[in-house]
Automatic annotation (TrEMBL):
The keyword Transcription regulation applies. Pfam families: DeoRC, HTH_DeoR. SMART domains: DeoRC, HTH_DEOR. PROSITE patterns: HTH_DEOR_1, HTH_DEOR_2. This is DeoR family transcriptional regulator. SUPFAM superfamilies: NagB/RpiA/CoA transferase-like, Winged helix' DNA-binding domain. Keywords: DNA-binding, Transcription, Transcription regulation. It comes from the Bacteria. The keyword Transcription regulation applies. Coiled coil: none annotated. Residues 3-58 form the HTH deoR-type domain. GO terms for molecular function: DNA binding; DNA-binding transcription factor activity.
Length: 250
């Protein structure tokens, strides 16, 4: 196997699992431990991982995980958060649901309801709602595979044409506390526009996001109505956020 190909496969393994081990990689690629250590050292110098005892972990902010990877994380917490969010939606409301794996869980719940006008930039959200008895509107734009959503000037121009009762957005993390963040500047520009067009704005994020952060800040906490998270959220960090906005525990 070519050197570049092996290193890319190691990186793919990291994206999928968050951790890799020298012993397993050595066996998988049929090379020596020393060869794998050199591969990990190279990837560490590129800023893509952090070497640890016996392996390596994914470096925060270095790689954006795909939607398919993120949707498998903390699924029970996401379902509880989505249920709490559903309780906040009035009958016959107009709603924008943004991209994210937790927002999709809310879409699955709304698919069992009727009478809502739902707008989204997310293909998974659209798929979850396509057979429901709600009015569904999918914003157009350039497709972004990493987040399975659309973006760009066309998307923003359509968002500006609607004013909704409530919106729900995801976040990749906020360990720096300043506000919810995203690994994509294009996704951030869409989320910022969505917040402007909604009377109430909620961030849906499980407690693991208190330990993670991304490159681009979406907004200040004071710009949103509430953060909805699960009861395992770090109490000290939660109290800091509560100075700026409401935190609702699922």
């Amino acid at each position: 196997m070519l050197l570049e190909k092996r290193r890319q496969l190691i990186l793919d393994e990291l994206k999928n699992n968050g951790t890799v081990y020298v012993s397993k990689l050595s066996e998988q690629f049929e090379v020596s431990y020393e060869t794998i250590r050199k591969d990990l050292s190279y990837l560490e110098k590129k800023g893509l991982l952090i070497k640890s005892h016996g392996g390596a972990i994914l470096k925060q902010n270095a790689i954006e995980l795909s939607y398919n990877t993120r949707e498998k994380e903390n699924t029970s917490d996401k379902k509880r958060i989505a249920q709490k969010a559903l309780e906040l939606i009035p009958d016959n409301a107009s709603i924008i649901i943004g991209t994210g794996s937790t927002t999709v869980e809310l879409a699955y719940l709304l698919a069992q309801k009727s009478g809502y006008k739902i707008f989204t930039d997310s293909l998974p959200v659209t798929n979850a709602l396509v057979n429901s008895d709600n009015q569904l509107f999918f914003f157009g734009g350039e497709f972004r595979p990493k987040s399975s959503s659309v973006f760009g000037g066309w998307t923003i121009s359509q968002i500006k044409q609607v004013f909704v009762d409530i919106c729900f957005l995801g976040s990749d993390g906020f360990s720096n506390i300043d506000g919810p963040s995203s690994p994509s500047s294009s996704d951030v520009s869409i989320d910022q526009e969505i917040i402007k067009q909604a009377d109430k704005a909620f961030i849906l994020a499980d407690s693991s996001k208190f330990e993670r952060k991304s490159l681009y800040k979406i907004c200040d906490w004071s710009d949103i109505t509430a953060l909805i998270t699960d009861s395992d959220a770090d109490e000290a960090k939660r109290s800091i956020i509560e100075k700026e906005t409401t935190v609702i525990l699922a």
